[in-house]
Amino acid sequence: MTENKITYAIEAADLNLYYGETLAVRDIDMQIEKQKITAMIGPSGCGKSTVLRAFNRMNDLIPSAHATGSVLYHGKDIYDEDVDPVEVRRRIGMVFQKPNPFPKSIFDNVAWGAQINGYQGNMDELVEESLRDAALWDEVKDKLDKSGLSLSGGQQQRLCIARTIAVKPDIILMDEPASALDPIATLKIEDLMHELAKEFTIIVVTHNMQQAARVSDFTAFFNLGEDHAGVLEEYDVTSNIFTNPKKKTTEDYITGRFG
Fold it and tell me: What is the domain count for the chain?
């Protein structure tokens, strides 16, 4: 498959995810649009974060986790034996629920990933560019030698985003990136997501219906199947999911009848 024919950032087909013998998520088929924001919503325990982590093989770090099916990225199944999961995670970055800056300076937090990947360019320029892209530069430019842990929660999360984009991924996964933040910091993260989507593909797990409606172009609604495994119930343009869902379960979840 030649790269110019690839129209999607990620394509999951017949994806089943297990923890030990337990089937956590089954039969996931998704095509993630490039340079768009895709939100993943659904009740707790339905496998949203498990699917998100399957898109860059973060689940590999859990000893009992394994997957069947395929996840295509640039036409290549990231689960093929010859694929390096570390390289997958460089290209498909991850921002976690709780900000997790390193106990290092703000500068070193951003530079760290680029350094271990052998970046040969001007590090000062890369750090500034990444902090600007994360809408943090103006707030920290005079204290780059201060600890990343000295920042507020919202600033720490934007620092983690800067750290992620410094290694030049083309997809950013976000697992409830604003759930630990106050409303003002949350809106800053949402505004930032819109800006980042001009350059990156973003997939975000969120429990906040209003957030999904505000920020995303596409929404995937996950639910628990009768076998207690997560299933992809409905996947569509966000406006359709929120105003004209095809399934009653989607409507019930969106309107707060369950979940």
Answer: 1
Residue with tokens 């399957």: 54
- Give pLDDT tens digits for 3-59: 456 689 999 999 999 999 999 999 999 999 999 999 999 999 999 999 999 999 999
Q: How far apart are CA 250 and CA 77, in angstroms?
A: 30
For position 229, which CATH number holds?
Answer: 3.40.50.300
Residue 101's domain spans which residues? 3-106+169-254
Global pTM reads 0.94
Span 73-124, pLDDT tens digits: 998 999 999 999 999 999 999 999 999 999 999 999 999 989 988 889 999 9
125-132's contacts with Cβ under 8 Å and 24+ in sequence apart are 126/166, 127/166, 130/162, 130/163, 130/165, 130/166, 131/106, 131/159, 131/162
Contact partners, residue 136, CB within 8 Å, separation at least 6: 155, 158, 159, 162
Q: Is 96 inside a domain boundary?
A: yes
Task: Give the H or E element holding residue 25.
Answer: strand 22-33
Is residue 47 one of the residues assigned to a domain?
A: yes
Q: Which residues of 39-62 are buried (b: 16+ CB within 10 A; e: fewer)?
A: bbbbeeebbbbbbbbbbbbbbbee
CA distance linking residue 171 with residue 234, whole number of Å? 22
Report yes or no on 214 lying in a domain. yes
Take residue 28 and report the two structure tokens written for it: 């996931």
Q: Grade residue 1 by pLDDT with cuts at 50, 70 and 90.
A: very low
